[in-house]
Amino acid sequence: MSSNPPCLRLLGPIGIALAIAQPAWADDAAGSPGEVDVDGDGDVDADDDAALKAAETIMIRDKSDGQRQVESARAVTVVDLAQAHERTADLGEVLSRTHGIQIRRTGGLGSTMRFSLNGLYDDQIRTFYDGIPLRYAGWAGGLADVPVQLIQRVDVYRGVVPVSLGADALGGAVDLVTDPSWTSRGAISYQLGSYGTHRASAAGRVRDPVTSVVGGISLFVDRAANDYPIDVEITDERGKLVPARVRRFHDDYTAGGVIVEGGVVRRGAIQRAIVRAFSTQSEKQLQHNIVMSVPYGEAESATSTRGVNVDVAIERGAWRGRVVGGGVRTRTTFRDLATVVYDWYGQVVGERAILGETGDTTHLRTTREPALARRARLART
Known about the structure:
This protein is mainly beta. The protein has helices at 46-54, 65-71, 91-96, and strands at residues 7-11, 15-20, 76-80, 101-105, 113-117, 120-121, 125-129, 132-133, 153-158, 172-177, 185-193, 197-207, 213-224, 229-235, 241-247, 253-267, 270-285, 300-316, 319-335, 340-342, 348-351, 364-380.
């Protein structure tokens, strides 16, 4: 028995990733003819050597699910993330290199993002995670914040959305697809970037070859200070506005989450029966108003998401069916309780007559939004 040791890879000048390969099982004596008991008579002799020399090598080739998508009649672009797993690029950067896709952000990691596909935006584009709507899979922050290490490929549908996704969208859809093979494997990734950016993720899956029972867990942690320089106008000693370059001081972003999966795959008519539970949380500081004229020093928001979804796919003869369902509860908190005034250098320059920095009449607000989704499909091929 032998196993591939962990390997350390350098991801560009600012990133490091650690990948743990799936164990490989082999016979210690398999590499040398004449040392393998082929006929099972209890000893290694000339008969075994002759059997090895006469043996035929059979190579089996098959197309991947991504290749089948490319060769199908659908208007789909398949983005393979194999190379992205070895680099310090997030999912937003990878997708922005695809023809027809634009991702615009208002700042660094954790900032507001707008996704565009062939000039269409927002509700005109549907996003999925293994065929499940993204918000019901625990990614309330959007697809750009999903760790690349957790995804095998991205299917980008332009125009007509497949019936299998169960969504009606004018501009198309994006489906983030994990590894459908469910082979036993594991991976750890750590990325280090400028402006205090740290991104770490770990994922592991196991499969019992006898019972086809599978289990998996994925974790991620993101952290960014986002203290990059910006050009603003400040008040000088004479009370006039003058241009100045300052660093952002109140724009931290922190996020983390865990996804636990379990079920059965490729057992009889059951192609997969997976239950996925997730919990994610993010916190974001607010630096300024929308026109960058007023700096904030205490305003912040937080979002937490918890839920469960079920994905069952059955195939028997020419009939195929799939049932997807799940529930999610999202909690959003906004906090604006500042009693002082901050300047662009993060210094306190006065007291506030009215509580809060943003001008919102509600200074502490918490909203809870439960949601349920379900979809069933039966087709004959």
